[in-house]
Amino acid sequence: MSLLASSLGKKYVMALSGLVLSIFVLGHMVGNLQVFGDPYLINAYGYKLQHLPYGLLWVVRLFLLACVVAHIWAAITLKIQNKKARPQDYEAKATVQASLASRTMIMSGLIILAFLIFHLLHYTVRAVPGHQYNHAIIANDGTEYPAEVPLVLHGKTKVDAYGDPLIVHNVHDMMIAGFSYPLISLFYIIGVYLLCMHLSHGVSSMFQSLGLRNEKWRYRLDKIAMVYGWVTFLGYASIPLGIWFGIVNASV
Ligand code: HEM
């Protein structure tokens, strides 16, 4: 049997793809938290990412997509293999002992996938009806923000190689307008909660699959996984909440 067809091989695929995605989730959160600073920060960050040299942005995007596909493939095929291999009563006993997060991994995974698709349509493709952001970004109360702005740092406009003002995508106000819709904010908070609990359980199983979780380290690694889950949840949830409580103000 080839390694990929075996349960062990699939567990490795799940663990490694999950590891890459968990690192991305942490990095993306840190990047997004810049919304609490000067609008220049997150707008310049978005600009830098979108102008990475050598088509690197697309390399990273395709790599992340490959990880998502591999992760889902391994999850589904492992589930089918386990169902075939396990007698019914064993499964019932195992279910009683397993935590809520571990029992609902497939379900939370599917909701997270729906969240991710909505999120990409909302902020990357900007194709959610009412959120197209072609010229202006319109908030829930009708306030209009320009979709693009000059990059301004400490009152000084940054210029390009020709001395023209550097025009960047207004990521800062796009977030303010995006989260001015209560249902969208709620959907994000629920989505990131499920994601972070899924990741927290995933990180702990990953240590097991990679053979790193012996008895001595079990407790510490489970704690690391739990801290990871809560830090990412609170970091992401603080963004819509910060906007709702007026901690993040529009730049224009
Ligand atoms: C409060 C939560 C979040 C906020 C405010 C947020 C914000 C954003 C923004 C503003 C962009 C577009 C960046 C740009 O236009 O330059 C973006 C892209 C993206 N986000 Fe999030 N995000 C959140 C949560 C997440 C989560 C939990 C995930 C992963 C599961 C995620 C995955 C992505 C991906 C894959 C992209 C596309 C990157 C690209 O290829 O351009 N985001 N996010």
What features would you describe in this structure?
22% of the residues are buried. With 252 residues, this protein is mostly helical. The strands form 3 sheets. It has a two-stranded antiparallel ribbon with strand order 1-2. It has a two-stranded antiparallel ribbon with strand order 3-6. The N and C termini lie far apart (61 Å). It has 9 helices and 6 strands; from the N terminus they run ααααααββββββααα. It has a single domain (3-244), classed as Up-down Bundle (3 helical TM bundles of succinate and fumarate reductases), CATH 1.20.1300. 67% of the residues lie in helices and 6% in strands. α1 (7-32) packs across α8 (182-209). The structure holds protoporphyrin IX containing FE. Protoporphyrin IX containing FE is lined by residues 25, 28, 32, 46, 49-50, 61, 116, 119-120, 123-124, 169, 171, 175, 188, 192, 195, 236, 239-240. Protoporphyrin IX containing FE binds at residues 25, 28, 32, 46, 49-50, 61, 116, 119-120, 123-124, 169, 171, 175, 188, 192, 195, 236, 239-240.
Notable characteristics:
mainly alpha, two-stranded antiparallel sheet, 252 residues
Q: Layout of SSEs?
A:
Blueprint lengths: L6 H26 L6 H12 L5 H30 L2 H10 L2 H4 L1 H20 L11 E3 L5 E3 L1 E3 L1 E2 L2 E2 L9 E3 L1 H8 L3 H28 L5 H30 L8
Antiparallel strand pairs: 1-2, 3-6, 4-5
Helix pairs in contact: 1-3, 1-8, 1-9, 6-8, 8-9
The chain binds protoporphyrin IX containing FE.
Protoporphyrin IX containing FE binds next to helix 1, helix 2, helix 6, helix 7 and helix 8.
